[in-house]
Amino acid sequence: MGDVVGARRNSVALPVPVLLVVAGLAAAVVAQGGYYLPGRVLSGLLVGVAVVLARPKPTALAALGGAFAAWAVLRGVIEGDVLAAVPAVAAAGVFVGAVLVAAQADLAQRELLATVVAGVGALVGFTGWVAVVFRVPSWTTVAEGLLRAASTLTYPNAAAAVMAAAVVVSLVLRPSPLTSVMSFLLCVGVGATMSRAAVIALAAGLVVLCVFSGFQKTVAAAAPPLLGAGVALAALLPSLRVADEPRPVLAVGGLVVGALVALVLPRLGRFLVPVTVLLAAGGGVALVVFADRLATRVSFSSPDRAQATGAALELVARMPVLGAGPGNGSFFFQRGNEGTRFMRYVHNEYLQVLVELGLVGLVLALGVVVCVLVAMWRGRGTPLWAGAMAAVVVVLVHSGFDFLWHLPVVLVVAGLCAGLGFPSTRDGMVEGTVG
């Protein structure tokens, strides 16, 4: 491939194809997750060029991803709107492309790539926290009178999905002050989004880590950043309600103390348990004190989503095999005296695919998932494998609660994390050199 410019860490360089996928990730982060056409095109183009340069061998995963994209296009042609298939084609392309490119990296390159993914997620978390504390309108979303961190993605749940996946990856990196701070900022960011689905998905990812990496090892790695984040989030609580004046001094102080907790806690030795219990108790007290402010976010009730699910199932019953066609999954329902309500997404990607592309599309999508999981299982045993598997589980679980597959940023992160757990398809791509 020749000499290329790469990102270095301890004499390890990321090859051009991987750098292009990382650039696609960065572009999607900046461009509102890549949801709108310009960001979707740019991130997709960068990943596509990366695949061309990497020249991966034909695989079952590529075939299934291509079949899913082709089916979406065919359904668009049948419905007379082929452009409506673009989101589905882009989703399959960026995810499969990211997987295939990351799978070609060797172990050293993968560790650097995992660090980059965690670092990008940490920046998303920090900017989301800043947006809440200093009331940045374009980077926050107001829900039930509360400010939710959204960062540049502008959608809190998507930002939370990116960060939750990055959290479990960061926990399997070699311990260092840098990784400790990244894990801490990621946990703070997830909390600042107040995404219930992300908390559930992160819990699932931590369970996977416990199973494959060991309970004691997982707790030792996860407790410091989680407890530090608890301190930072407790100091953030007074600033969450829109009707109240923000408390930036308190929030900044909490962030600094929380970071110190995340850095110092692993070094406490025999004092680790009592300090952990004390911090956990303090967090519980803060949650009780501000429970009235967070009542809407700690409840699992979501009437609109429940009724949208009912409307989606009615559409499925009409066209179960072929689906309504890409872009035709619109959901109308009655809500009390408010009249007819409309939701563009059912907030469950598996059901959304079933509605728009029918049983054929869902089988192909699940085939992609199964293919990824089988390939990752064959790659088990590497240092990053448990974190990679946990990250994929995080995204899969969260996808049952939100429309994440419509944002390339989530799919690129999921693809890179999946590729980290694949068996290496070659003995590392040629590293770049500077100068």
**Coarse structural class:** mainly alpha
Q: How many beta-strand runs?
A: 6
Helix proportion range: 55-70%
Shape assignment? globular
User: How is the main sheet built?
Assistant: 2 strands, antiparallel
What does this structure look like?
- This protein has 435 residues and is mainly α.
- It has helices at 16-30, 37-54, 60-78, 86-102, 107-133, 156-170, 177-193, 196-213, 215-236, 248-264, 272-289, 291-298, 303-318, 349-378, 385-398, 408-420, and strands at residues 8-9, 12-13, 140-143, 146-149, 331-334, 340-343.
- The strands form 3 sheets. It has a two-stranded antiparallel sheet with strand order 1-2.
- A hairpin with a 2-residue loop joins β1 and β2.
- α4 runs parallel beside α16 (408-420), α7 packs across α10 (248-264) and α13 crosses α14.
- The model is unreliable at 1-9 and 427-435 (pLDDT under 50).
In short, what is this structure?
The chain is mainly alpha-helical.
Core attributes:
435 residues, mainly alpha, two-stranded antiparallel ribbon, disordered N terminus, disordered C terminus
